[in-house]
Amino acid sequence: MGKGSIVRYKNVYYRVTRATKNTVNLSNTVFGSKVLHKGIPKSEVVEAYDEWREHWHKSETFRCM
Q: pTM of this prediction?
């Protein structure tokens, strides 16, 4: 898990904006850049790119592009 990874935290998808040995900072959305959560332990987040991609492809926003 590194900078730019898509993760799930509390059933919401975020992008990692900073990763240290034990913690990560998360942006407010996958496409956003504003840091919303700082210092979240890596043990509390799950890498979820495949889940997010599947969810995104089923979304109304994606279908309207």
A: 0.79
